[in-house]
Design goal:
globular, Peroxisomal Thiolase, Chain A, domain 1, alpha/beta, 34% helix, 2 domains
Length: 412
C-alpha cells in the first residue's frame, strides 16, 4: 500500500539553511555546536548550543509580521517557504485542500522574555498586544495558515522531542479524511536566557565546555545533550493529488507510524524500554514490514547514559534477532537536540540518506558502548538505504517511530 508522499522539504537548522546545505554539513561531519552567542551564559552552567547562522528572516517574513511574531515562527515560515519551493507547490484554488499540522515544544521564548522584562521594569502598559499570540504554541501553525491561505484542518502537536514525528501521524489522519496536502514538522528557538534556564533544570544538559565533549550519544563518556534551534517542515501529499498537479519529485513515502507513552512519571524515564520498543513494533506493523526489512535507524540519541541504554534496549528487543546488526546513527549530535524541530529534521535527513545512499555518522562517538545486535555508525559511509525507521522521544514519556521508504513508481 502506498503511503503519503513527501514532495517538499525545507530546512532551517544549525547545520544549514536549505536542504543541501544541511546535508552537505552532515556528510562532511561538520559540528554545528558552538559557544552560545547573544547573551552571557556564565550563570547557567551551560555554554554550548546549536544556533542557526546565515539566516536572514527578512528574506522570508514581511516586516509587519516580524514585529508580531517570535524567532521560532520566523524559522517555521522560512522552512515552509523552502518546502513549498522545493515541491513546486502553489496554493490550489480550493483553500481547504491544504492543511498545516506543526509541532511545538516551547513556543515564542525570545518575544515573551522581552515582554516580561518590560512588564517588571516599566509596568503593564509596556506589554504589547502581540504578546498574547507570539508566545502561543499554535502561533507558527496559525501564522503560516494565514500567510499562505491554507484553510484545511490544522493544529499543533505538543509532545516535546517526539512532536515532529507526531505531526506526521496527525497528517495521515487528516489525509484519510480527505485533505490531499499537509505541511508538517516544526521548528524551535529556545536558545534564550529563560528557555535555557528551564531546560537546564531538567538535569539532562551537558555542562562540558568543549563541543567535542558535550553531546556524545552512545559513547562511554556521554554526559548529557546540547540544545539547538531550528528544524524542518515537509510537504506531504496524497499520491493521486501529487500526480495530478505534476509534482516535480518525490523524496520518499511515509508508510508506518507508531506512538506510545510510558505512563510512568512526568520527568523520570520508565525503568525499561517496553513502551519504546512497542512504538517501533507498531510502526513496522503499520507499514507491513519486519525488522529484517529495515536498512537504517535514526535514533533519538539522548546523550545520557541511562536514556541511551534504554534506547539500545528497545532496539535490541525489536532488531536483536536479525542475521546482521541494524545500522543506527544519531545525526542530532551534529546540531544539538532541537526538541520538536529535531525529529522533523531527522525525517529530512533520513530522506536524504535514501536519496544518496549515504549514512551520516554520529558526532563525537569515540568510544561506543557495547551494543549487541546494533551497528552504531561512527563515520559517514556509503550504503544502499531503502527503508528507514526514525525514532524520537519527548520529555515526560512520549515515544514515537516513523517508517520511511524509497518511492518507486507503480503502474496505475
Amino acid at each position: 500500500m502506498t503511503g503519503l508522499l513527501v514532495t517538499g522539504i525545507g530546512v532551517v537548522a544549525p547545520t544549514g539553511v536549505g536542504v543541501e546545505a544541511h546535508w552537505s554539513s552532515l556528510v562532511r561531519g561538520e559540528p554545528a555546536i558552538r559557544p552560545i552567542e547573544g547573551f552571557d551564559t556564565d550563570q547557567y552552567g551551560v555554554t554550548l548550543a546549536g544556533q542557526i547562522r546565515d539566516f536572514d528572516p527578512k528574506a522570508f517574513v514581511a516586516p509587519q509580521l516580524m514585529v508580531q511574531t517570535d524567532r521560532w515562527t520566523w524559522t517555521s515560515l522560512a522552512a515552509a517557504t523552502l518546502a513549498a519551493q522545493d515541491a513546486g507547490y502553489e496554493a490550489p484554488e480550493d483553500a481547504y485542500a491544504t492543511s498545516v499540522f506543526l509541532a511545538a515544544g516551547s513556543g515564542g521564548n525570545e518575544f515573551s522574555q522581552h515582554e516580561i522584562q518590560g512588564l517588571w521594569a516599566k509596568g503593564p502598559k509596556s506589554v504589547g498586544a502581540y504578546q498574547s499570540i507570539a508566545w502561543f504554541y499554535a502561533a507558527s501553525t496559525g501564522q503560516l495558515s494565514i500567510r499562505d491561505g491554507y484553510k484545511g484542518p490544522s493544529g499543533v502537536v505538543v509532545s516535546e522531542g517526539a512532536g515532529g514525528l507526531d505531526s506526521i501521524g496527525w497528517a495521515r489522519r487528516v489525509a484519510r479524511r480527505g485533505t490531499p496536502a499537509v505541511l508538517v514538522g516544526g521548528t524551535e528557538a529556545g536558545v534564550t536566557p529563560y528557555a535555557l534556564l528551564c531546560q537546564a533544570t531538567s538535569g539532562r544538559l551537558s555542562t562540558a565546555t568543549r563541543p567535542e565533549d558535550a553531546y556524545k550519544p552512545f559513547d562511554r563518556r556521554a554526559n548529557g545533550h546540547v540544545i539547538g534551534e531550528g528544524g524542518a517542515i515537509l510537504l506531504l501529499e496524497e499520491p493521486g493529488a501529487a500526480r495530478a498537479r505534476g509534482a516535480r519529485h518525490v523524496w520518499g513515502e511515509v508508510v508506518g507510524y507508531g506512538a506510545t507513552h510510558d505512563a510512568h512519571h512526568h520527568e523520570d524515564p520508565a525503568p525499561d524500554a517496553t513502551q519504546y520498543a512497542r512504538a517501533i513494533r507498531l510502526s513496522l506493523a503499520d507499514a507491513g514490514l519486519t525488522p529484517d526489512d529495515v536498512d537504517l535507524v535514526l535514533a533519538d540519541g539522548a546523550g545520557l547514559p541511562e536514556l541511551d541504554a534504554l534506547e539500545l534496549e528497545a532496539l535490541q528487543r525489536v532488531f536483536g534477532q536479525r542475521a546482521t546488526p541494524v545500522p543506527v546513527t544519531a545525526p542530532s549530535s551534529w546540531s544539538g537536540r532541537l526538541m520538536a524541530g529535531g525529529s522533523a529534521l531527522n525525517v529530512a535527513t533520513a530522506l536524504l540518506a535514501i536519496r544518496d545512499g549515504i549514512v551520516p555518522g554520529t558526532a563525537n562517538l569515540d568510544d561506543p558502548v557495547d551494543a549487541p545486535g546494533v551497528d552504531l555508525v561512527q563515520q559517514s559511509r556509503v550504503q544502499d538505504v531503502g527503508t528507514v525507521v526514525v525514532l524520537a522521544r519527548g520529555f515526560g514519556g512520549f515515544n514515537s517511530s516513523l517508517v520511511l521508504r524509497r518511492h518507486e513508481e507503480r503502474a496505475a
